[in-house]
Amino acid sequence: MDSTFVVGIDVGGQTSKLGVVDARGTVLAQTVIRTDTYSDVEPYIAELAEAVNKIIKDSGTEGKIRGIGVGAPNGNYYTGTIENAVNLSWGGDSVVEFSKLLSEAMGGLPVALTNDANAAAVGEMTYGAARGMKNFIMITLGTGVGSGIVINGEVVYGHDGFAGELGHVAAVRNNGRTCNCGKTGCLETYASATGVARTAREWLELSDEPSVLRSLDTIASKDVYEAAKDGDKLALKIFEFTGKILGRSFADFIAFSSPEAIVLFGGLARAKEFLLPPMESAMNDNVLPLWRNKVKIVFSQLKESDAAILGASALAWEL
Amino acid sequence: MDSTFVVGIDVGGQTSKLGVVDARGTVLAQTVIRTDTYSDVEPYIAELAEAVNKIIKDSGTEGKIRGIGVGAPNGNYYTGTIENAVNLSWGGDSVVEFSKLLSEAMGGLPVALTNDANAAAVGEMTYGAARGMKNFIMITLGTGVGSGIVINGEVVYGHDGFAGELGHVAAVRNNGRTCNCGKTGCLETYASATGVARTAREWLELSDEPSVLRSLDTIASKDVYEAAKDGDKLALKIFEFTGKILGRSFADFIAFSSPEAIVLFGGLARAKEFLLPPMESAMNDNVLPLWRNKVKIVFSQLKESDAAILGASALAWEL
Fold first, then answer.
1. Among A174, A180, A181, A256, the residue to mutate for chain B (most B Cβ within 10 A)
2. In degrees rounded to 5, what are phi and psi of residue B170?
3. How far, in Å, CA of B44 to CA of B92, rounded?
């Protein structure tokens, strides 16, 4: 067994999670720092490096760290930069040389960086549901819809480092919902946690159908999930619609790279019991006959609290 | 300069074209045999091997052939088989071990096989418009719409050898046209030569708009092209519609693999003057801002009569 270790850092808009991980995917030590209290990247990096050094010390792995893997919004694998990440308080309109800054602050330790969904894909391949798979598509169902595409055992970065934006393919061509990206009809506007809440608000307004959701002041996807578990018919229909939208998009993804499986992760993936049946049937109804009933839909097996760190850390094994 | 040569064979439903090719992409000798006069594959392979031997002799390349590349409908790169190719008289419902049979008939020369669109992609990368590109998507606009996807300089075959069926993604989600594959709304039903003719027939029936196309008994895409060149308004609108359908599908393809370019080839690509403007604007209107006006649409530079042979032959360089 390899006696080296890696560090994984998941950079989120509010907090950054970091941990020391062994080759089996055990998180030996972890901690969290704020991301959003910094308007400049330098002091953030200084605190991050301090936190990394602390968990290395806590886990007794000094001198045994092979490298650091970072998952961050708009992270570019080729350049190690974070570009125009509007959700990061120090991201803004600029290009942040994240890998370079962090590596310097860590005395030259190598740093690999990519976006969060790509990191999740590497995590699943290394420690999770995609172990042994060479061709799969990771879909993260969170606030938005992200994706990481693996072909022949390697993440697809494309010619510029930004490949795999499947949350922004056209799920609905005409009169689609407005997306944050400026387009309309993007998959993300229907099939994310936000999208599910939007569907609920839209349908409540358009119909008189009774639902426990009517009594709520604000609706989040979690409320729709709870209502569905209690048998609320409208909530169940919302998940059926969401699953269908996802499944028919998966059919198009399969035509592209013919993956062995679609792997799902993220908050919304907890609604597996309601999403899976409509997703599978829409996928199989819309895919070419040669792939019908042949492509698996699997759900992440990683412990949710560790998954972001594990995904990022897995990148570092490739350094 | 490499002093070895390769053979390229393009297996079509009616005829099979074959040629001996040098490393610069010059076709030194070529010939054509019938495909559709055989109901069994063995006598077809026997005639094919004879024809290959003849062009090798004609070109004076005996003993210098590195291998044979074959482009064929439903060709599987991994297994060297042709599976359920309904358009081939000896294809039918079976799995034909094409590479094995041909290699045996050619005294053990190595044979590489893939589908025609993948072969075209390798051809463009080796000799054509995609030289030097590591990430591009080849779209063939012929009777159908085929595709070959190149990522990091390699064709994407997927987990089963059948990746890259972009003619069968959903161009139209509701009330889409019926496709030969059994689905509806496939890109191929709108953006192939057949699709253009279908659009013409549909629009002529639905409107009273004057058009020279009304005087024809049967309409092929070539007629629509000729009419557009003569300024026929309906014909021009048909190409605008076709280009738009293609361009917005390209936007989704870009979100997948972030290619440097989309490369177009095939009979319908001759209508470049009419297709390119609506294609480019629909692509840029529907793509994420980060790729807007950044992905090129380029047209094949290969001589059309040689292209099928060149594409297939290029596979053999990798043997």
1. A256
2. -80, 110
3. 14
State how far residue B29 is from chain A, nearest Cα, in angstroms.
Answer: 35
pTM of the model: 0.93
* CB-based contact A250:A262 (threshold 8 Å): yes
Token pair recorded at residue B180: 């030969």
Nearest chain B CA: its distance from A251 CA (Å) = 8
Residues in A touching B251 (Cβ below 8 Å): 170
Question: What residues pair up with B139 in beta bridges, in sequence order?
Answer: B147, B264
Hey, is the C-beta of A148 within 8 angstroms of any chain B C-beta? no
Residues A141, A178: Cα–Cα separation, whole Å = 18
Got the DSSP string for B101-127? HHHHHTTT--EEEE-HHHHHHHHHHHH
A183 and B288 within 8 Å at the Cβ level: the answer is yes
- Contact check, Cβ <8 Å, B157/A258: yes
With b meaning 16 or more CB within 10 Å and e meaning fewer, what string describes A116-138?
Answer: bbbbbbbbbbbbbbbeebebbbb
Q: Could A251 and B165 be called an inter-chain contact, meaning their C-beta atoms sit closer than 8 Å?
A: no
DSSP reduced 3-state for B170: strand
- Eight-class DSSP state of A184: B
A257's tokens: 């790279």
State the nearest Cα–Cα gap between A199 and chain B, in angstroms. 19
* C-beta atoms of A182 and B149 within 8 A: no
Q: How many angstroms separate the CA atoms of A172 and A189, rounded? A: 10
- Contact (CB, 8 A) for B116 and B138: no
Hey, is B213 helix, strand or coil? helix
**Spacing of C-alpha A231 from chain mean position:** 29
Contacts of B120 (CB under 8 A, 6+ apart): B71, B138, B140, B146, B148, B265, B300, B307, B308, B311
Residue A113's beta-bridge partner residues? A70
* HSE value, Cβ hemisphere, 13 Å, CA-based, for A50: 8
Taken in order B177, B180, B183, B185, is the CA torsion positive or negative?
negative
Q: Decide if A118 contacts A148 (C-beta within 8 A).
A: yes
Convert the pLDDT of each residue in A166-197 to its tens digit.
999 999 999 999 999 999 999 999 999 999 99
Q: Do residues A131 and A125 make contact, with C-beta atoms less than 8 angstroms apart? A: yes
Rounded Cα distance, A97 and B50, in Å: 61
Structure token digits, residue A44: 């953030």
Give B1's pLDDT tier (boundaries 50, 70, 90): very low
Q: For the purposes of burial, counting CB atoms within 10 Å of the CB of A239, is it exposed (0-12), middle (13-18) or buried (19 or more)?
A: buried
Mean pLDDT lowest for which of A58-62, A301-305, A312-316? A301-305
Bridge pairing between strands B65-71 and B5-11: parallel
Chain CA centroid to CA A284, Å: 24
Concatenated DSSP letters for A117-157? Answer: HHHHHHHHHHHSTTTT-SSEEEEEESSSEEEEEEETTEE--
B85, two tokens: 């190719």
Q: What is the ipTM of this complex?
A: 0.93
**Cα–Cα nearest to A145, from A157, A154, A137, A153:** A137
Give the model confidence (pLDDT) of A109-141 as tens digits.
999 999 989 999 999 999 999 999 999 999 999
